Task: inverse folding
């Protein structure tokens, strides 16, 4: 989705302002939002791609006007509503008015350390041969799906070179839509910065991780 | 008199009154809790009441990311790579395994890639689409990393970003930017500062900044006093 989350190359936000000695959290509620988001993520009702899609679906003005933990909070509420785990009245009041939905698992205290250590690897067995090889010139597709995608706008329809081949990984465009993992080959594509920005850049190159459906052979365009 | 500390500039746009502006006159129920505190408390109460979350698990999650996991982990990886050529070769070939051998692995570091800075090449890592960041080695991302100014500008004007951090890179150095769009997580291996020959891994690790492992910081060379040598 061409939403407010797709920020690469936008201008006018002003300088980056690092905060010396910045703590991990700036308020108690930020601690709670992190923990609630991670704990509810372990329940298995959604995945990282549906979570990202929920955050990106905030209205653009709200997205840009929120801190990142506020965005997480809004995303968590949206997922609870979407999956029926809670309703809007319950979320506002903080009290349950309907029976809880039975869950296959919850994150128990003693499971936190093993769950974090395990993580959620996205690599999957490949079901087909890789279409592209190291060093190959490719072009990203000109695409603007209404749903979730991980191909930023600034590098669509651009030529680059495959600089790494990473095996097959969960395809977020499908996973976020609830269509399963649908693993696809994942590549790192290096674009010359001039291919993306013309002369208006101070980068030499920008490398982007691209799933195979985002790519076509460079020759396909030039014949 | 206003008691609360100034709010950090932490919205994506870094607007000045990010968390809660007190230029209104409602009461806060006699407490200093912000609107967000109240809303998040309500949600937590609900999820506990429904039995969806274990309150003890929440406390462990917070303690883990506030106290245990942070950029000192990544600094140990960098210092070992500077000290041990075989480890560095492993790190560049299979970063996930090499980093896990030091005990750092798991969530948001499942698939690690290490990018080596050289005299000819400087690397900078961003996530333009959200806030992807290598948690096991760097901890949670700082506000600026998740903010619009960095996410917008790193891919088009990384030298300008470096200037915001107080660093200028020579024109001859190629600046390579990496946008973390997948579940690969990138860690920059900064150049070892000159003047550190013979230093212990512990002493080297103390030189490594978080920002140098993102690519928004450079590490100054060590200028030894004329009359003394650095401790071995």
Result:
């Amino acid at each position: 989705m061409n939403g407010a989350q797709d920020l690469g190359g936008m201008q006018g936000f002003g300088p980056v302002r690092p905060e010396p000695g910045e703590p991990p959290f700036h308020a108690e509620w930020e601690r709670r939002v992190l923990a609630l988001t991670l704990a509810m993520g372990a329940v298995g009702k959604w995945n990282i791609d549906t979570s990202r899609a929920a955050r990106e679906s905030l209205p653009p003005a709200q997205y840009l006007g929120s801190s990142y933990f506020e965005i997480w909070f809004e995303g968590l509420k949206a997922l609870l509503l979407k999956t029926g785990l809670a309703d809007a009245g319950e979320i506002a009041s903080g009290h349950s008015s309907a029976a809880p939905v039975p869950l296959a698992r919850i994150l128990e205290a003693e499971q936190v350390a093993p769950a974090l250590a395990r993580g959620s690897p996205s690599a999957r067995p490949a079901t087909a041969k890789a279409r592209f090889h190291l060093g190959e010139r490719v072009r990203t597709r000109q695409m603007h799906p209404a749903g979730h995608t991980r191909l930023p706008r600034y590098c669509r329809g651009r030529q680059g070179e495959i600089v790494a081949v990473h095996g097959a990984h969960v395809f977020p465009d499908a996973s976020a839509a609830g269509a399963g993992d649908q693993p696809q080959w994942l590549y790192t594509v290096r674009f010359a910065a001039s291919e993306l920005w013309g002369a208006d850049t101070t980068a030499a190159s920008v490398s982007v991780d691209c799933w195979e459906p985002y790519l076509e052979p460079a020759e396909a365009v030039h014949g | 008199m206003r008691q609360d500390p100034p709010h950090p500039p932490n919205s994506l746009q870094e607007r000045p009154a990010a968390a809660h502006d007190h230029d209104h006159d409602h009461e806060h129920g006699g407490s200093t809790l912000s609107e967000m505190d109240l809303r998040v408390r309500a949600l937590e109460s609900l999820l506990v009441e429904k039995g969806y979350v274990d309150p003890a698990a929440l406390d462990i999650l917070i303690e883990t990311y506030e106290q245990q996991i942070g950029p000192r982990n990544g600094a140990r990886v960098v210092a070992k790579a500077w000290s041990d050529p075989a480890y560095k070769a492993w790190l560049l070939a299979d970063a996930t395994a090499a980093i896990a051998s030091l005990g750092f692995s798991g969530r948001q570091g499942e698939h690690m890639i290490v990018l080596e800075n050289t005299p000819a090449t400087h690397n900078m890592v961003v996530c333009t689409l959200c806030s992807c960041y290598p948690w096991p080695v760097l901890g949670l991302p700082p506000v600026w990393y998740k903010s619009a100014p960095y996410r917008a500008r790193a891919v088009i004007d990384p030298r300008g970003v470096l200037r915001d951090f107080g660093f200028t890179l020579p024109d001859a150095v190629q600046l390579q930017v990496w946008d973390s769009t997948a579940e690969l997580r990138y860690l920059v291996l900064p150049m070892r500062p000159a003047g550190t020959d013979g230093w212990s891994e512990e002493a080297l690790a103390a030189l490594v900044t978080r920002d140098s492992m993102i690519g928004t910081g450079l590490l100054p060379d060590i200028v030894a006093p004329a009359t003394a040598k650095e401790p071995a």
User: Anything to note?
Assistant: Strands of chain A lie at 123-124, 137-140, 159-169, 184-192, 205-211, 215-217. Chain A touches chain B through 102 residues (CB under 8 Å). The radius of gyration of chain A is 20 Å.
